[in-house]
Design brief:
The complex is a heterodimer of chains A (228) and B (344).
Chain A (H helix, E strand, L loop, with lengths): L1 E6 L4 E8 L2 E8 L4 H16 L8 E5 L5 H18 L3 E4 L1 H13 L3 E7 L5 E8 L5 E10 L12 E4 L1 H14 L4 E5 L6 H13 L25
Parallel strand pairs in A: 1-4, 4-5, 6-9, 9-10
Antiparallel strand pairs in A: 1-2, 2-3, 6-7, 7-8
Chain B lengths: L1 E6 L4 E8 L3 E9 L1 H5 L6 H23 L8 E7 L3 H18 L3 E5 H7 L12 E6 L4 E8 L2 E7 L5 H11 L7 H8 L24 H15 L5 H31 L3 E5 L6 H14 L2 E3 L11 H12 L26
Parallel strand pairs in B: 1-4, 4-5, 6-9, 9-10
Antiparallel strand pairs in B: 1-2, 2-3, 6-7, 7-8
Helix pairs in contact in B: 2-3, 4-10, 5-6, 5-7, 6-8, 7-8, 8-9
The chains are: A alpha/beta (228), B alpha/beta (344).
């Protein structure tokens, strides 16, 4: 099975190829460069694996939340490639990808993912490890002021993502004492984590056609209606 | 060569399939007017969100209407600027990636080049050189077109675009958004010469325009007369008529001057205001009197559309131009930076 994943939702830009159990990734922290480097990254990954785009079984992408422009680039690239080759698409939450990365790197099994959403808010969600090695959502994703985040309950959680570097103290106070056992501020979503989650989703039959490869922004109140 | 064209620079998602041998095969459009109406203007973030939702369904639809499969496409053309950067980037991401995955070339198209060449999609299209009047909500300019890709801007608006002045004046008179076409409709019932508006910048040499003063003039006329007006609807219509007459007269004077200065005998009109019936009639009259030819795109290709992008892109692709493996778009892009087509 061959699945290609991409992510351009945050400062990091990445592409990863799952090829019969092995994962290769291209990853760069390159703000504002995503649109220039994402296609060459994909091209190189496929070339190194010696396969063509028509050999893929599915595509996965970081569907947000994150930078509006960033998640649209990932969605647009995914739509274009998937449509060209009639490939199914697995949209993956960037907050879930952060939790998966934290698990891979620290062994954490309970993760509070937070992305700095600017305007004094964070994109926020809680994840726990499943039997299949994938992090799964507990509760729901939200865009929320850092002092309003929901308390996840008993201790042993790891905080991960740019929200923790921007609002670490406020978030710590909001979740309460003794809840946090670790913190990973420099933890971006990555295509490697996305492809791990996507393999399980794809095998479970959860995928969409290219036209439904659309972003999830969480923040939907983006303009003021005029009085006129 | 069969080319898919994608336009997403502002608030319309337009796709088209153009065959260099058979002409235009199909075109589809999704307008976001209703999305933005309640905000009184285009909201860039909402425009971008709409584009990324509609690009795929419209791609499927236009290929189906053209009766071709995606593997029959020989290239993809997309608007890379100028325009709203988020909106452009939505189209560019899909277009460039689609071309890569189909293993066909992609080419960037300048939005205004698309408009300028749109009249060439029609039968009896003029040859080169010609003078082009591009007049829309975003632009008002006169260009000397020596050949495809060889554009010299010889005049442009120093402030509001003509279409922008239409929309703003309409808004001030409570005609809603986008009010330009409503204002033009209202002008049909307005009486000639009840009010006399200035013809800005026509009393001095040069080909530049200025339309922002006209909307102030309209506002003052409205404020000074509405209190005592017995029939406010007629007053509105009379102001609309005086405003439209001033814009049309000004455009006519500058077009004639541009033709004289450049020695051209062909005028091409493009852009949303080019759909204004009064402007079309008056220009045709002027052309008959002064023995020059005037060409317009069909009404639906005056406003933003995918057909003009597919057409301009097919010319560039056939001349061997293409875009490297890079998704790029730019809010600003001077038209004079464009490359001419390589000599055949």
């Amino acid at each position: 099975m061959k699945i290609l994943a991409i992510d351009t939702a945050t400062e990091a830009c990445s592409a990863a190829l799952y090829f019969d159990g092995e994962i290769n990734q291209q990853y760069r922290v390159a703000p504002r460069e995503h649109s220039h480097i994402i296609l060459p990254m994909i091209d190189q990954l496929l070339a190194e694996a010696g396969i063509r785009v028509s050999d893929l079984d599915a595509l996965a992408f970081g569907r947000g939340p994150g930078s509006f422009m960033g998640v649209r680039i990932a969605a647009g690239v995914t739509q274009g490639i998937a449509f060209a080759q009639d490939l199914p698409v697995v949209p993956i939450s960037t907050l879930a990808a952060i939790a998966q990365t934290a698990h891979t790197e620290t062994g954490a099994s309970s993760v509070l993912s937070a992305i700095d959403a600017r305007m004094n808010e964070v994109y926020w969600a809680a994840y726990r490890l499943s039997d299949n090695g994938c992090m799964h959502l507990v509760g729901k994703e939200s865009v929320i002021a850092p002092d309003q985040v929901t308390k996840p309950g008993e201790g042993g959680w790891t905080g991960a993502g740019s929200g923790w570097s921007a609002y670490g103290e406020i978030l710590k106070a909001a979740v309460g004492p003794g809840v946090l056992s670790g913190q990973m501020n420099e933890c971006f979503p990555s295509a490697e984590s996305i492809v791990k989650l996507a393999v399980a989703e794809y095998q479970a039959g959860r995928h969409v056609p290219p036209s439904q490869a659309v972003p999830v922004y969480l923040r939907d109140n983006v303009a003021k209606k005029s009085a006129a | 060569m069969i080319v898919l064209g994608i336009e997403s620079s502002c608030d319309e998602t337009g796709l088209a399939v153009y065959d260099s041998e058979k002409g235009l095969l199909a075109h589809v459009l999704h307008s976001q007017v209703e999305v933005h109406a309640e905000y009184g203007g285009v909201v860039p973030e909402l425009a971008s969100r709409d584009h990324i939702r509609y690009l795929m369904p419209l791609t499927e639809k236009v290929l189906e209407q053209a009766g071709i499969g995606k593997h029959e496409l020989g290239g993809i053309a997309y608007t890379a600027g100028p325009g709203l950067i988020g909106a452009l980037m939505s189209g560019a991401s899909v277009a460039r990636s689609l071309a890569w995955a189909l293993d066909i070339p992609a080419v960037e198209v300048h939005h205004m080049e698309g408009h300028l060449l749109a009249p060439l999609l029609e039968a009896g299209a003029p040859g080169f050189p010609f003078v082009a009047l591009l007049v829309s909500g975003g632009h008002t300019l006169l260009a000397h077109v020596a050949a495809i890709g060889r554009y010299e801007i010889i005049g442009q608006s120093l402030d509001d675009a003509a279409g922008e002045a239409f929309d703003k004046t309409a808004k001030m008179m409570g005609l809603g958004y986008p009010g330009g076409p409503v204002l033009a409709k209202l002008a049909e019932t307005g009486r000639k010469d009840i009010f006399r508006f200035p013809r800005p910048m026509t009393d001095r040499p040069g080909l530049d325009f200025s339309f922002s003063g006209l909307k102030t003039f309209a506002l003052n006329t409205w404020e000074n007369n509405r209190q005592g007006a017995e029939d406010r609807e007629q007053l509105r219509a009379d102001i609309a008529r005086a405003f439209e007459d001033a814009v049309v007269d000004t455009l006519l004077i500058k077009c004639r001057r541009a033709l004289e200065q450049s020695g051209c005998s062909r005028l091409v009109v493009a852009g949303g205001v080019g759909a204004n019936q009064h402007l079309r009639q008056r220009l045709q009259q002027l052309a008959n009197e002064h023995r020059f030819s005037v060409s317009f795109p069909r009404l639906e290709f005056c406003t933003d559309n995918g057909a003009m992008i597919a057409f301009a892109g097919s010319l560039r692709l056939q001349a061997g131009q293409s875009q490297p493996l890079d998704i790029d778009a730019r809010a600003r892009w001077p038209m004079e930076d464009l490359l001419p087509l390589a000599k055949q």
